[in-house]
Amino acid sequence: MPGIHFGLTGLAVMGQNLARNVARHGFPIVVHNRTPARTEEFLQAYGSEGHLIGASDVASFIGALQPPRAILIMVKAGPPIDEVIGQLTPHLDRGDVLIDGGNSFYMDTQRRLQALATDGILYLGTGISGGEEGALHGPSIMPGGSRAAYEIVAPIFTTIAAQVDGAPCCTYIGDGGAGHYVKMVHNGIEYADMQLIAEAYDLLKNAVGLSNDGLAQTFQEWNQGDLDSFLIQITAQIFRTKDPDTGDYLVDRILDQAEQKGTGKWTSQSALDLGVPVTAITEAVFARFLSALKDQRVQAARLLPGPIGRFQGEKGAFVNAIREALYASKVVAYAQGFEQMLAAGQEHGWDLHAGEIASIWRGGCIIRARFLNRIQEAFDHEPQLRNLLLAPYFREIMGRAQEGWRRVIIEATRLGIPIPALSAALTYYDGYRRERLPANLIQAQRDLFGAHTFERLDKAGVFHFPWAPTEA
Predict the structure, then answer these.
(1) H-helix or E-strand spanning residue 52
(2) Fewest beta carbons within 10 Å, which of 192, 355, 408, 412?
């Protein structure tokens, strides 16, 4: 149909809600799905929400769009993306735009961008966060790839994105796979954030002895202060929710095995390649792996000894200490994530702007939180800030949280309650603030057994020492 430039293929829930969001904001859109029946069902349910046109096959889908076409692909990441691209490209013209809105691996995005460029087709690897509700009411959108492609779709993306203080939660991230990389790290931070909250829950329930009502009240109160965030908000809601069939609290009936789609693992793998210590994120990934060993854990619970009991001190003060530990650890997780993104930007030649990234995460996305305003302010004030912990506001936060944070780590260890992310965050903080670490001993060991050399504090150069022979 003349005048329609924007299309979407892939009408699972995320695709449907994004299409509805576009139509509701007055942009005409053509929709397509691999199974035509789903397209018809979608139009019957939501066709009245705006200018929505359905297409039953790829040829009619492309034919209904006027160049320059912009097509958002909302299918499962991996080979399905390549399959859809292969179906679409024979029908496209030079200057048309393809947009991958899934959780694709950033190197796949870079490969696709380069391959399509040979035919003059523009490509955007676009991270979209906010889940089903965000897709409908305003997500955080992280487009990367062709700048020219972004300029074509920017009027739509900036309109349908979440809006905070009058600004859209969408900005051009950078070249190549930058958009999907930033979304990947967003998800890595999300892993850490969720694990930290789960550890706080474990302490409140099994150390302090709070009921589900008490947990809901505690998280609701925390959400009124500096921990104000989407994840804290929904956590309070979860503890209030009961199973309508049994009347029991639903959270207590859910199997304790956390699944994952791989973005957290990708974040940790990339950090290892870059040499960036994202310890809180990586421990959160490992915690999910450990949760998957349910059968082994059931057996180990019967066989392996360990402490039991509950916290015996003043509960109100300890609950506040848990809050401080959670907040300080969240700051560390975000600091690590931003350090990783900036390191990746240098590695790949992406011109990433940390303040802008923090700004578009303030609304729509899963990790949206009040203190992202502070992160934005920190990077806006000092664009070359090397680590978020060095910013004055966060230095003050970490100083105030010290006593409670350490108390929680000690008490959890005494009671045998696992806190991998909380403790990893504190260990990172203590390592980062140490002028001298014991790595000098490691270098001496490496030089002794493998002649790997070392540098010295008192003179320049690279050295090898003729250590005395070791005994057999």
Answers:
(1) strand 52-55
(2) 355
Active-site pick, 49, 132, 133, 190: 190
Average pLDDT for the chain: 95
> Nearest CA to 263 among 188, 189, 180?
188
Nearest Cα to Cα of residue 153 among 124, 117, 183: 124
pLDDT digits (tens, 9 = 90+) for 196-247: 999 999 999 999 999 999 999 999 999 999 999 999 999 999 999 999 999 9
Retrieve residue 177's tokens.
């796979």
pLDDT tens digit sequence for 228-237: 999 999 999 9
Q: What is the pLDDT of residue 472?
A: 55
Contact, 161 vs 169, CB < 8 A?
yes
How large is the average pLDDT for residues 56-77? Answer: 96
Summarize pLDDT for 110-131 with one digit per residue, the tens: 999 999 999 999 999 999 999 9
Q: Strands 122-129 and 140-145, how do they pair? A: antiparallel
State how far Cα 323 lies from the chain centre: 22
Q: How far is CA 109 from CA 9, 113, 114, 146, 152, in A?
A: 18, 6, 9, 11, 19
Catalytic residue, from 41, 76, 151, 183: name it. Answer: 183
Active site residue 190: yes
In the predicted structure, residue 62 carries a pLDDT above the cut 60: yes
Q: What is the DSSP string of 229-283?
A: BHHHHHHHHHHH-B-TTT-SBGGGGS-S-----SHHHHHHHHHHHHT---HHHHH
- The secondary structure of 71-137, three-state, reads EEECCCCCHHHHHHHHHHHHHCCCCCEEEECCCCCHHHHHHHHHHHHCCCCEEEEEEEECHHHHHHH
The predicted structure's pLDDT at residue 1: 41
Cα–Cα distance for residue pair 164/158, rounded to 1 Å = 12
Q: What pTM, to 2 d.p., does this model score?
A: 0.94
Q: Please, which residues have CB within 8 angstroms of residue 385's CB and are 6 or more apart in sequence?
A: 354, 378, 379, 391
